[in-house]
Amino acid sequence: MMSESGQGQMPPAEAPTVDAVTVQVPPIEGPVRAERGVARVGQALAPGTPVLTLEHVSKRIGSRWIVEDVHMTVRAGEVYGFLGPNGAGKTTTIRMIVGLARPSRGVIRVLGHDVHRDRSAALGHVGTIVENPETYRYLTGRENLIHYARLAGLRGAERQRRIAEVVDIVGLGARIDDKVKRYSLGMRQRLGVAQALLARPKLLVLDEPTNGLDPAGMREFRELIRRLAAEGMAVFVSSHLLSEIEQMCDRVAILKSGRVIAEAKVADMLSGRAFGQAGGGGTAFGHVGAGDDGAAGSGAAHQKGEGAGPTGLSRARVRVRLHVAPPVEALRALREAGVEAVPEAHGPADWGEPGVLIASAAPDEVPGLVRRLVAAGVDVHAVQPEQDTLEDLFLQLTAAAADGRGEGADGRA
């Protein structure tokens, strides 16, 4: 994809073959060193400054509304996760954000510039990577960056300095003069980030950036994105790898059937604070409204009740791991008290040995359960409330039957 600012990532459609290409790389005169600090990603914005805003954004294709009344704000210094099942409208939303599709209703702004009315000014602040970045594999990493820096309008010493800066940012200094065909997938992803950073964007949009990476590559990429956010960039990430989103992002929005059904800080989602109750949980809950800044969600999602989402479903119970001995007596005592409890999947071979039970109870019931177990002659070695993962919350929120609205002819999310 190529924006008007030259920050895109796709090489020309008719790329020359290996035998036909000759690349003239201008010599670098004298040592060029990357500057440290926020200057490497451009003049830093104040933390919390709105960078990307979506207001009442909807997209209709034929007779179907693919995206409906989406509100969203991504701020400087944060990594914002964008989640949803296949067909939820994620790809259509991203295409609208980067100017490849026009909203049927609503407005998308980057630093106050309308993406569709003031395209060049808006997209000049945006760098984008969609899945695996496209590069010329028969050129070196440096030659690729020289090519894209020219397209971004960088010239002479300024271009040399900026290439040195982005190479330092992504940690490719030792391999930047190797041909890209010798790079691992993780190195190609980092080269793609370097390419997207050349024009010092204030917003980085990443669509499935960790696809195909091994665990080490995922960790390196996650740490890179966190560093960029720490230096003042706003980062918007869409991914199906929820464990990565949980570790990478500050806030997340969940899209279903074209509407934002939940948006909050990741820490608040996992602790339960986003749903009106402190403490982790383990039972299903309903539709959640806007986050603490009231900047995201759909029109119907802007009201919140105390301890419940707009559907009135609260997260009133938590899962508790009880390390007890003997577990058979503990299980009997809990069931007599009307408490749902089951042995852990890999329980002890001998029920007379210590074991683990998984119980479901309201948080304020847990002390009473412990007292009941002790009164029944059960030794309680540990009590561990279990906190939902982002994957648990995502599956709970999107578990309702689909209402038939999808993503369009290509079926992409």
Overview of the structural elements:
The chain is α/β, with parallel strands linked by helices. The protein folds into 2 domains: 1-280 and 387-413, Rossmann fold, CATH 3.40.50; 318-386, Alpha-Beta Plaits (2-Layer Sandwich), CATH 3.30.70. Helix content is 26%, strand content 23%. It has 11 helices and 15 strands. It has helices at 90-97, 119-123, 141-151, 156-170, 185-197, 215-230, 242-248, 266-271, 327-336, 366-375, 390-397, and strands spanning 50-61, 64-75, 79-83, 105-110, 113-114, 126-130, 203-207, 234-238, 251-256, 259-265, 297-298, 318-325, 340-343, 355-361, 379-386. Strand 4 and strand 5 form a beta hairpin. It is elongated. 43% of the residues are buried. Residues 1-6, 9-39, 277-315 and 401-413 have low confidence and may be disordered.
* Strands in their spatial order, largest beta sheet: 6-7-8-3-9-10
Identify the CATH homologous superfamily of the largest domain.
P-loop containing nucleotide triphosphate hydrolases
Number of strands: 15
- What number of structural domains do the residues give? 2
Poorly predicted spans: 1-6, 9-39, 277-315, 401-413
Oligomer: single chain
Helix content: 25-40%
